[in-house]
Design goal:
- With 103 residues, the chain is mainly β.
- It has a 5-stranded antiparallel beta sheet.
- The protein is elongated and about 55 Å long.
């Protein structure tokens, strides 16, 4: 049996179109509106680290800016401006948390 591998991977995203994330979400989620489109750009840094003797650990943060989502042939839209994101690790899985103003 092969020994567990260790790794330390970092990903830096600069000016990635939010539309790319929407396309990925369309592939992953069947119930997402088929005509959902997005404008805006994402910047962030994420890291995955695993030692040969331990579980993977994930960390990172970023921000999507000037975000606009549209659906229903452009009749419905929402403008989110800047959306901060933080990758929070739990024992079950790493989850992306959207942070925003509190009501």
């Amino acid at each position: 049996m092969a020994a567990p591998r260790s790794y330390d991977v970092a990903l830096t995203a600069r000016d990635v179109p939010v539309a790319s994330a929407v396309e990925l979400a369309h592939e992953a989620k069947q119930k997402l509106a088929g005509d959902l489109t997005a404008d805006g750009l994402f910047n962030g840094e994420f890291r995955a680290v695993r030692s040969a003797s331990g579980p993977a650990q994930f960390s990172g943060s970023g921000e999507a800016r000037e975000v606009r989502l549209r659906s229903n042939n452009g009749k419905d839209s929402i403008v989110l401006n800047n959306v901060p994101l933080i990758l929070v690790e739990t024992r079950v899985a790493a989850r992306a948390i959207v942070c925003g103003p509190r009501a």
